[in-house]
Protein: Ubiquinone biosynthesis O-methyltransferase
Amino acid sequence: MMNADPQELNKFSELAHRWWDPHSEFKPLHEINPLRLDWIEQHVPLQGKRVLDIGCGGGILSESMARQGARVKGIDLSKKALGVADLHSLEAGLHIEYEEIAAEALAAREAGTYDVVTCMEMLEHVPSPASIVAACATLVKPGGHVFFSTLNRKPKAWLLAVVGAEYVLRMLPRGTHDYAKFIRPSELASFARASGLAVRDMRGMTYNPISKRYSINRDTDVNYMVACTRDA
Structure:
């Protein structure tokens, strides 16, 4: 069985045409992208690296990594999102390979191929996040880097990421997130270790509704990012 929720795929496919509108439902992704790109590059310079972006959607992170000189492949299970990503990269003059394929299927075909693997804002949308983490570990080269970002399953995350972002501030469409699918940092770290990945860094990302700015810090109660390496 494919590790995907049809309702989640349909939800994001219906919004695919708005992916590159910085004032649309994807505004938060546009705003956090420079921060997460900088954080990734603090761990590994992307110039010349072969990079895989899992759950790439419309290609916001994929394009930014390509602009840093990486050779990027993006995969997703939303045909509509990939169509948007492919067209936008062509318009931007960037060479990015996109493919509609599951991470597990690609892992069976291209094990140990990539210097860097990213899987951002995706784990909380799939039935088996541990399976995705294992696929990432398989796809990255020994000694390579894997980056995740997701949401913590804590009451504070429900209050801010669901009630606050979806119902009060209306930054995201209602129903974007399912709190039951949020993942505690300890759980993600356990998935990583079980797959042969070593956790090297963990950072939180918070939003200030007054300044309307995001920042990276040590507060992992809501959004957080994890940097891993695969044992050489």
